[in-house]
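One thing: mind reviewing this one?
=====
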Amino acid sequence: MPIDWDKARTLAYEAGRAAAGPAEHVALAGADGRTLAEPLVALADLPAFPTSSIDGWAVRGEAPWRPIGRVLAGSTPPPLTEDGTCVEIATGAMVPSGAAALVRVEESARDAEGRVSGTPRPQPEWRLAGDEARRGEELLPAGTPVDPAVLGMAATCGYDTIPVRPQPRAALLVFGDELLTSGPPGEGRVRDSLSPLVPAWLRRYGATVDSGAVLGPVRDTLEAHLEAIRHGLAVADVVCTTGGTMHGPVDHLHPALSTLDAEYVVNTVAVRPGFPMLLARVAGPDGRPRFLAGLPGNPQSAVIALVSLVAPLLAGLHGRDLPALPRVELAAPVPGRGGFTHLALAALDADGRRATPVGHAGSSMLRGLARAHGFVVVRPDRQAAAGELVSFLPLPLSPGERP
């Protein structure tokens, strides 16, 4: 019995979350794209000392002030102990104790004897110790994706390494004697479009895919399938296969999984396109669980399986939350698919709030996919009308791509 699409996403995510690896400490330079395995806490007050926000003068007492020194960033100044004195101070420098105010250099003047005059602004021109955070305060929770802003925050706090989840490794096995790896299709053979497509999106979902982890075409025999799957399980945490998910004369995936004593997490999903997809848990050579995601052979169906099962699985393995689906307004009606969820390719407008279904959306086609930003989600036994708000399953986009 096919599993409801929303339930299948949840099962895939929960399987990944349960198998997420332990924390490992990684240098900041290598942590981009990973996930915090523990909360990021402030190692010191931020800022750690009163810090000047301006170039100017740190003053004590009433004007005019007699300069007695200079404070640059990176130094520890002596206190100001005498009224009527000041020190020149640079932005980012530590404010000396005893200073009553800061005066901007552009709002100050010096007389013939070099004394400084000016009027401090009503609001203090420095950051007090702990203005941003106090030592021990949680700044970011576990499960936060690490991006450049997180790296900058960690460095500001004094971290050299941060605790992150291991980055999942992925492999792709392309099944099918009918596949060509170069040149145009013809004479009963079709071009393999999934070898370049699937690894690229796996990487955008945060997996690593080594050059030796993409194999195919794999011959349509049980022995060849088993050999390829065992290789994939030895080098990856998630093995994606394409084709062979049904029970036809050359569909050897299910017998191979039986031979490997695999446990199905999901076996077929009530979604169109993409119905014959699966996710199985397999013991790896080291005893740790590995996963095999069976993607259909038709290209768009394979992508739908990727975004429906593999993306939630990888989110779980990363230790992240399962992303919520945004809502968009439909620009045109989208039909339902009976008791199945319908994932309909759609392009978003410039602000990402309105979705227009695209053509060439058959399960074997990629033309529509190349113009789409994701899929409109039409729930079972429903139609979606123009102007209706519906869930949207986005494709992973590169940085800088819209929307």
Notes: Residues 114 and 191 are 81 Å apart (CA to CA).
